[in-house]
Amino acid sequence: MERIAIVGIDCRFPGAPGTGAYWDLLMRSGDGVGPVPAQRWNAAEFHSPAGEAGHSNTTQGGFIDEPDAFDNEFFTVSPREAAAMDPQQRLLLQCAWRAVEDAGLAPQRLAGTATGVYVGIMGNEWAQVHLTDYPHVTAQAGSGNGYCMTANRISYHLDLKGPSLAVDTACSSSLVAVHLAANALLSGECDYALACGVNVAVTPALSIFYTQAGLSAPDGRCKPFSAEADGIGRGEGVGAVLLCRLSDAVERGLPVYAVIRGTAVNQDGRSNGLTAPNRWAQQDVLAAAYRRAGVAPADVAFTEGHGTGTALGDMMEVKALAHHHKGRGKPMALGSVKGNLGHTEGAAGIAGLIKVALSLHHRTVPASRFAAKENPALRLKEAGLRLLKAPLRLPAGPTLAGLSSFGMGGTNAHAVLESAPPRAARPEPAARPGPAGLGVPVLTLTAPTADALRRNLLTQADALAARRVPAGPLSWTSHRTKTGHRYRFAVPARDTGELAALLRDAATDDAVLARFAQAPAGRPRLAFLFTGQGSQYPAMTAGLYRESALYRHFFDEADAALLPHTGHSVRDLVLAGDEAVNRTAEAQPALFAVGYALGRSLLELGAAPAAVLGHSVGEYAAACLAGVFPLEAAARLIAARGALMQRLPEGGGMLAVLAGHDEVAGFAAEEPEVSIAVVNGPKATVLSGDSGALMRVGKRLTDHRIRTRPLNVSHAFHSALMDPMLEPFAEIAREVGGGVPRIPLYSTLRGRLLADDEPMDAAYWTDHVRRPVLFADAAGRLFDDGPTHAVEAGPRPVLAALARKLGPPVSGTRPAFVLPVRGPESGAEDLAEALAALYRGGLDPDWDAAAAPGDRVPQRLAPYAFATAHRYWTRNTAHLTAPAAPAPQAAAPAPAPTAAPPGVLVLERAEESEPVWAAALEAVGQVGGYETGELAPHLRLYEDLGFDSVMVMELKTRLDELLPGTGGLTVQDLLPRLATLGDLVAFLRECNPQGRQTAAGSGWTPKERTA
């Protein structure tokens, strides 16, 4: 039978705000119980030690901190809707998100999938308070309450298409939810399932009920199986686990906490009372779970019991366990987390499941709180059971555990879990075809806002500082998990300590954050620029070659292609730091190898160019990557070019002139043996030709106060002195051939984009030797076509400096220059930073290609840190709270962004007081619960302000009230004009043109805002 893997966990319980804190609480036998918070109810008013009618016998319980805090902006929920939502819905949303992240999955990647959501829930006190306040029942109050909405809310916001349902079987609700989720996975109904449980106490109703039923412990603490047991103490909490089939988890490389071997659910039927436990039914559900799991009771090492700490409940549970475990060898360990938390009611099953999963994962079962004085009436030893007074270390190998959860109405559930198989607990590195390994890991992180990014950078920095895992696996996991939001952060770092420091610096220093973070408007459009001759130097890219397996692979590939034509290894020459690399015969093939290896590395990393350009000899690598000819042909041609040029007699030279083409042309024309060889910019021209003639031209230029500089070259490239080599080169070029680029190629021979029917054939490459390099023209036209990023592929940045001196592009926006190699000291870190820059600019790289094979192992990163600034509680419970307690506040509204993105409608500040604008603000503010000062024209009604169809209906009604002059809008009129608030205002002005001139004519009057 297929087993079910628990791959992700998140939870919040009393005294434990996260999974790690929960495990810590268990291991130290911590107590999460304390006084009833003043925010809930006035415990003194409803307290009676004697348990009088309408009162509770305790002022204690297990309560979570800050149940009113909710990051509504993250989920695009308006403040008004957030204030109406049951806090259980809010807690589940955040918990479900973090459970998916914990599995090493980006929650957005589950969107549209058949992922199921199963929520165990027992209490609905928020609805009892709000839906009986009839004058204030709104559409938001309806969708914000109800059991079904706890599950449906998760499915809606995560866009999950699988089954979505809430389960109420009282105290066993969340383990029954796990049972249903597991069965859905086994039947193929879904591939992932979120199983959750939640409980928040808003009123003292259940505390009073437990007291009146004789079930409540006066100190508010459950003492499971203890001689001190005297009843139930209430508890709160929320937990979520992400489940999938074990075979799928292994195939997908997801780390597994533990495995569910089998589950069973049954009912007491008619027993000695609707709320009384039934030993025989419990005994049967245990047998069914063991049978479905295919295990013998004696094989179970420990069981997390229901363990409420009531005399009857503990007795019935022990008798049911004894039926299976009595006399079967070593006593089975028994405990209950209710001793630490209280009875978390609808969340009790998930609290126990998470405890068992963590125990199997850590190979340790925590000691049971209150185990020191076990209840002698239970006769645990005779029953084949024992309470753990100290943590139990589990032996190596597979370990089985049980988990019980029994509902007050008689629905019982039991699950059998097993430790994860070694390969599932510690997945092998993910395999990937082809070369890989950037050399330096790049950690990425995304967030919906800059503030959220800062908050999460600090969270990750603190978590990483406490870990000893290498930076590589952590970074690889971040690409899978921390993705999908608008603000992108990426930084290379060689080790975890460096990484933690960089994250902290970025979170606390705006300048550092601006360097490593960006909010791209869309996908980037890349241009690759390939550097030409003159940029070479001994040992160029040697550091990158040593550190990056990816670059090394492609450099070796180029070297192998060149070897038959050069007669020696270009790679060995370069890495040896040989000065011979400056000789033309060596420099040209070596530069080709560097350009090719950088370009292919970037392509392998997912950085595909929208256009390419090569400066003179750099055009060979550009053409090869653009598909003009294969690597072997390009290698033959570039090797021949360098060798033929090297054989030419010396005596020529080149002269850089700080002037434009037109200014220099007249001087060059006076010397027939001098040609214009290169035009790099409006003030950058290079002359080439006979050395004596160059000296004469240089003198005349100096006389006219034009600066010149001789270049250290062996030959007069792109001049008539190249003519002797043209025919032998053309012959080889004809044999090699050359087609039309498959990627747009901006030719420095033509000074423009090559046409679709313009091949780079033998004639092209022969002209390429002799005619001038028109870099300024080609680059200018390339930049006019609007690339967002220009990536220079060469041993040092030369073209980036030249390009910055060109005139502004037609768009007025220059591309961002990205430099994978910055010079002789460059290594893998510069290439890693180049990829990080492209990611920040909107590229989605192939991170598997960036990671070393051994780094592709998932790690559990710190979960997303939600904002806690916004608080949503209820004024309707004010009568329950102590008089001294501060008045609960309504929703703290979400701050609006201060700057509009490019291309959106922006209203002038002077227009914001005109009546149509004011009326639109008022209406949107009323419907969404926003302060009008927070609203701005560029905010999107759906994506930023959380509007939905119900809110649009209400918006139409509000606008009719505020702007009668619009002539009776329909919802159909509004829907196409609701992209942004600015669009809405423009439409309303069209409908009500008089509103611009006069407030009286607009019919707008300010109205008091209602909560």
TrEMBL record:
Limits of the Ketosynthase family 3 (KS3) domain: 1-419
Domain of life: Bacteria
One Pfam family recorded for the sequence: PP-binding
Transferase recorded as keyword: yes
Keyword set, alphabetical order: Acyltransferase, Antibiotic biosynthesis, Phosphopantetheine, Phosphoprotein, Transferase
Annotated protein name in UniProt: Polyketide synthase
Domain Carrier: 911-992
